[in-house]
């Protein structure tokens, strides 16, 4: 099945979206503190995985795995919402249409319950 990930050119385009998304996240005091002790390379990897997941690319996660990696962070709805907002902005910035953005956001929403309050 063709995914948004394929439609937007796989990793090449994704890398550009990631760079932009990364800037938005780093500039946002609501969420940037979570990445304070994360090295930059790992953080960039996180953003890449996040965007790839949203677009249906490789590395699709299970709720169980996501609940484990975010364990102890006690992420709140406002943190999750902030990340979703930046994802929306980053995709719109690169001309992704609202319908496709909606699909990507729905994908991310499906993991909310596994990621917050852990
Ligand atoms: C659908 C949503 C999300 C996905 C798919 C996702 C994916 C991941 C993955 C795969 C890891 C493991 C580390 C890695 O391999 O890069 C991770 C760690 C992490 N995530 Fe997320 N994440 C999501 C949402 C969030 C949110 C909303 C926040 C905070 C605002 C967050 C903050 C972190 C942090 C701080 C780490 C640890 C990084 C480190 O190793 O220091 N994540 N995430």
From TrEMBL:
InterPro entries: Globin-like_sf, Globin/Proto, Hemoglobin_trunc, Hemoglobin_trunc_I. Binds 1 heme group per subunit. It holds the Pfam family Bac_globin. The keyword Cytoplasm does not apply. Heme binds at residues 46, 70. GO terms for molecular function: heme binding; metal ion binding; oxygen binding; oxygen carrier activity. Keywords: Heme, Iron, Metal-binding, Oxygen transport, Transport. Its cofactor is heme. The keyword Iron applies. Belongs to the truncated hemoglobin family. Group I subfamily. This is Group 1 truncated hemoglobin. It comes from Paenibacillus rigui. The lineage of its organism: Bacteria, Bacillati, Bacillota, Bacilli, Bacillales.
